[in-house]
């Protein structure tokens, strides 16, 4: 279950930022998860609970924003929703398309309450 | 549009107080899919004393930075590094041993063996003339750049050598973790079925080479070679595909020739 590894890294980033900001209460952590990363949002939230247990992030909420996949065609420049990693251009049928969105895995922001 | 989640939800309009805050607890415990829209994004009001600290950091940033360091280490020594991935039992270790046997007369080879538990594969590699080191990931289902860095420092590979990393048998998790390798090789065997590239697309999408292994069994299993290749192409049109039998050695020459070419281009 690689969600746990990801959750631990998210907790690390949030702790570091909270420390830098001098706050002790993090109410939430916003993360972007691309649809194509293979990360299951429910498993990530569950894993985060495990990662945050007995730390000051214990009561922080992990808010997962799913980023839909978008592919683009190099020939007709059409942007479209791929079928997973199957990127066949609906305009010209080429298979040489690239994924431009859906691989994100970012901590966007944390919400903090001043102590 | 909502800054943080990029959603186009306009239901929460009229609340433009401050920046979007995604953490406002709402009374409704709505479990439906677009839950975050109602619960966090909109309306964009701020709780007293609550503020949002923008971070915008890739979750894998630390791993990727260490991977870059690994790559620099390899490049400084003219080392070619391979990350071998694939499901349990697809034939990774057999393939690595064949590769070592084909090269070892002229080429120093080092192996990093990633396994959850035990050192069985390391013992197999140890019988060859390659130097091998074991990395146990315990409950972790993939290698990461940090564990590879530690292993590489201990191996201390010579200049102009080949470093082969056998990742943990898994078609899902290792795909996300850059180790600093030059080439990602995914091995899948004909006994796994020709649909695997579609079902485990991220792994095949991130690889540069795909080995279709166990071709000696093609007659015995309902595996359509052409379908497999088409599926691979659909998922990754850059993929270089080589079919072989690691057990019997047929098809290995194409792989070895390709490998030698990669090493030459790195070392010129
Ligand atoms: N018939 C046939 N069997 C093979 C071939 N390659 C490997 N095998 C067999 O498949 C089994 C698994 O091979 P390994 O090399 O241990 O596979 P692996 O991917 O390293 O396995 P893990 O490290 O456990 O994930 C062994 O019994 C091998 O002998 C092949 O080309 N043909
Ligand atoms: Mg093995
Ligand atoms: Zn097109």
Strand-helix topology:
The complex is a heterodimer of chains A (115) and B (268).
Chain A: H1 2-21, E1 25-34, H2 41-52, E2 61-67, E3 70-72, E4 79-80, E5 98-101, E6 105-113
Parallel strand pairs in A: 1-2
Antiparallel strand pairs in A: 1-6, 3-4, 3-5
Helix pairs in contact in A: 1-2
Chain B: H1 35-41, E1 50-58, H2 61-76, E2 80-86, H3 92-103, E3 109-115, H4 120-126, E4 131-136, H5 145-155, E5 162-166, E6 183-189, H6 196-199, H7 201-206, E7 209-213, H8 225-235, E8 240-243, H9 252-267
Parallel strand pairs in B: 2-5, 2-6, 3-4, 3-5, 6-7, 7-8
The complex binds guanosine-5'-triphosphate, magnesium ion (MG) and zinc ion.
Residues 73, 75-76, 78, 89, 91-92, 94 of chain A line the site of zinc ion.
3D architecture notes:
The complex is a heterodimer of chains A (115) and B (268). Chain A has two helices and six strands. With 115 residues, chain A is α+β, with helices and mostly antiparallel strands. Chain A has a single domain, classed as 2-Layer Sandwich (hypothetical protein PF0899 fold). In chain A, helix 1 crosses helix 2. The longest helix of chain A has 20 residues, at 2-21. The two termini of chain A are 35 Å apart. Chain B has nine helices and eight strands. The termini of chain B are far apart. The model of chain B is unreliable at 1-45 (pLDDT under 50). In chain B, strands 4-3-5-2-6-7-8 form a seven-stranded parallel beta sheet, sandwiched between helices. Chain B has 268 residues and is α/β, with parallel strands linked by helices. Chain B is globular, with a radius of gyration of 23 Å. Chain B has two domains: 7-63, no CATH class; 70-267, P-loop containing nucleotide triphosphate hydrolases (Rossmann fold). Chains A and B meet through helix 1, strand 1, strand 2 and strand 6 of A and strand 1, helix 7 and helix 8 of B. Magnesium ion binds next to helix 3 of chain B.
């Amino acid at each position: 279950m690689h969600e746990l590894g990801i959750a631990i890294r998210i907790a690390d980033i949030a702790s570091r930022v909270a420390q830098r900001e001098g706050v002790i209460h993090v109410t939430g952590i916003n993360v972007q998860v691309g649809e194509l990363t293979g990360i299951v949002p429910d498993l990530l939230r569950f894993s985060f609970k495990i990662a945050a247990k007995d730390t000051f992030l214990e009561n922080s909420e992990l808010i997962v924003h799913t980023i839909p996949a978008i592919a683009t065609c190099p020939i007709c420049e059409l942007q479209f929703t791929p079928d997973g990693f199957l990127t066949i251009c609906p305009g010209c049928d080429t298979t040489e398309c690239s994924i431009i969105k859906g691989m994100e895995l970012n901590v966007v922001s944390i919400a903090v309450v001043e102590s | 549009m909502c800054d943080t989640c990029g959603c186009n939800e306009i239901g929460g309009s009229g609340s433009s107080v401050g920046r979007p805050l995604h953490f406002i607890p709402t009374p409704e415990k709505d479990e439906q899919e677009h839950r975050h829209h109602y619960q966090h994004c909109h309306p964009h009001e701020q709780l007293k004393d609550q503020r949002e600290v923008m971070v915008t950091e890739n979750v894998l940033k630390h791993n990727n930075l260490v991977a870059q360091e690994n790559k620099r280490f390899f490049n400084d020594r003219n080392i070619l590094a391979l990350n071998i991935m694939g499901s349990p039992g697809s034939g990774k270790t057999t393939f690595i041993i064949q590769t070592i046997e084909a090269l070892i007369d002229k080429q120093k080879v080092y192996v990093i063996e990633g396994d959850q538990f035990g050192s069985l594969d390391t013992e197999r590699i140890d019988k060859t003339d390659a130097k091998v080191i074991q990395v146990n990931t315990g409950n972790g289902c993939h290698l990461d750049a940090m564990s590879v860095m530690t292993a590489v420092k201990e191996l201390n590979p010579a200049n102009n050598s080949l470093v082969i990393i056998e990742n943990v048998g898994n078609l899902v998790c290792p795909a996300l973790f850059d180790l600093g390798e030059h080439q990602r090789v995914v091995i899948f065997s004909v006994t796994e079925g020709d649909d695997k590239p579609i079902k485990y697309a991220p792994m095949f999408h991130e690889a540069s080479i795909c080995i279709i292994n166990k071709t000696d069994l093609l007659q015995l299993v309902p595996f359509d070679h052409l379908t497999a290749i088409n599926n691979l192409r659909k998922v990754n049109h850059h993929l270089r595909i080589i079919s072989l039998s690691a057990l019997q050695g047929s098809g290995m020459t194409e792989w070895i020739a390709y490998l030698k070419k990669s090493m030459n281009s790195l070392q010129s």
